[in-house]
């Protein structure tokens, strides 16, 4: 089981000490959206997986990861859940992944 998510606003990452103030400012200017993953089998540590220039590219990165995993093991059953975090338009863009899994 994996958990991947995108953080659009870097302010929270800076406030919690995960990135420096300089990294937050530069990331905000360049519209960097990090793709993060959570270690669900260990202690729940959040680590960066990729850095994409826009939110759309970050969501496409996650969608590509889901497709890659699904294509690698066709014999195993899969379930994918997309949470929107009060961002319904982003979830609508990822709806095609849920439809393909069902």
What report would you give on this structure?
The chain is 45% helix and 17% strand. It is α+β, with helices and mostly antiparallel strands and 102 residues long. The protein has a single domain (3-97), classed as Hypothetical Protein Tm841, Chain: A,domain 3. Strands 1-2-3 form a 3-stranded antiparallel sheet. Strand 2 and strand 3 (46-52) form a beta hairpin. Helix 3 packs parallel to helix 4 (88-101). The radius of gyration is 15 Å and the shape is globular.
Strand order across the biggest sheet?
A: 1-2-3
Provide mean pLDDT, rounded. Answer: 80
Uncertain runs? none
Query: Structural class of the helix and strand makeup?
Result: alpha+beta
CATH topological fold name:
Hypothetical Protein Tm841, Chain: A,domain 3
- Our count of domains comes out at 1
Write the layout of secondary structure elements.
Layout: E1 3-6, H1 11-15, H2 21-29, E2 33-38, E3 46-52, H3 55-72, H4 88-101
Antiparallel strand pairs: 1-2, 2-3
Keywords summarizing the entry:
single chain; 102 residues; 17% strand; alpha+beta; three-stranded antiparallel β-sheet; 3 strands; Hypothetical Protein Tm841, Chain: A,domain 3
At a glance:
The protein is of the alpha+beta class and 102 residues long. The protein is 45% helix and 17% strand.
């Amino acid at each position: 089981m994996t958990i991947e998510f995108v953080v659009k606003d870097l302010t929270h990452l800076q406030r919690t000490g995960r990135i420096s103030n300089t990294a937050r400012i530069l990331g905000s200017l360049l519209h960097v959206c990090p793709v993060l993953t959570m270690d669900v089998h260990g202690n729940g540590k959040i680590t960066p997986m990729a850095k994409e220039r826009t939110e759309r590219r970050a969501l496409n990165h996650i969608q590509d990861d889901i497709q890659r995993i699904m294509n690698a093991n066709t014999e195993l059953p899969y379930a994918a859940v997309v949470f929107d975090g009060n961002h319904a338009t982003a979830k609508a863009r990822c709806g095609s992944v849920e439809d393909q899994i069902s």
